[in-house]
Sequence to fold (363 residues):
Amino acid sequence: MGALSTLSSPKLIKPTILNQFSPNKIPSLQFNPPPSTKPTNPFSSSAFKSSNDAVPPLVVVGSANADIYVEIDRLPKEGETISAKKGQTLAGGKGANQAVCGGKLEYPTYFLGQVGKDANGKLITEALEGGGVFLDHLSTVSDAPTGHAVVMLQGDGQNSIIIVGGANMECWPESLGEEDLEVVRNAGIVLLQREIPDSVNVQVAKAARSAHVPVILDAGGVDSPIPPELLKFIDILSPNETELARLTNMSTESFEKISQAVGKCHKMGVKQVLVKLGHKGSVLFTQGEEPIRQSIISAPAVVDTTGAGDTFTAAFAVALVEGKSKKECMRFAAAAASLCVQVKGAIPSMPDRESVLDLLQAV
Fold:
């Protein structure tokens, strides 16, 4: 199964939702190109076209933020006031970033989240629509403002971020509605992050597991321990190096130490851990198998690293649900992240599928 080559704007055509995955198993189908004298690109949209013109969608459940950017030469010291060179507000949030990434990679994508009845909510809604994301499960709440973040962007592209949860953390129903849970059960793959309440993530992960839908949890967000109840319902945990160290209370200063920290995750019940290592690349650890390492695909210039991890995780998920091998998934995700860091902003930097394919052909 895969993204339809005819599906250039997912928001205009609703997919017929089918669940085609075997119980409790992440898909790892190998691509077998048809006999041809010309090499076939396994990442092309047509390579995985569904024979029945229906694909189970990517469902992203998570946060949506208005990112308030301030461009600075350096971070201020304690008690110090400095001037920013520039400031602007752009759409972002880990959940919205990943949803737009899925949409721009031409895979049918739903976003389940909350925004407030304010200008920032409108900004995010328009950005999601522009990325081709289905918004049937986006709620607008009146008792909380849209979540926002202050992004302090330094000249080398590195950033420091402060998040205000707003509607991402407030006003969720005690129990998600049946319509929301149904889209989860009929997904091809589900993406979660930790910028919404753990209770919501647990409900979603349980619903996905009941329907044998694989779940990836991006560890980014609140810095509290991940509830064991959530861990037992996810298939892949995806932290960056810092998050892995915090979650395991172990050092991640070398590959050996990263492997030991991942071993602790395995003992916590997570069989697959996808670690994002910034400029050092990424590694997929599967319990009982050799790790799969992927180096970065170098960018000519790093403008802004905001959203790069979200791009990587979402692109990996899209490749996985399309049936690509794990190595192909890692390479596809690395190419998408390389394009992301070359553009300022989170949602504005999400790459389209054609650009990713072109980069993969060039490297």
Notes: The chain has one domain: 19-27+34-64+94-144+167-362. The two ends are 26 Å apart (CA to CA). The longest helix spans residues 326-340.
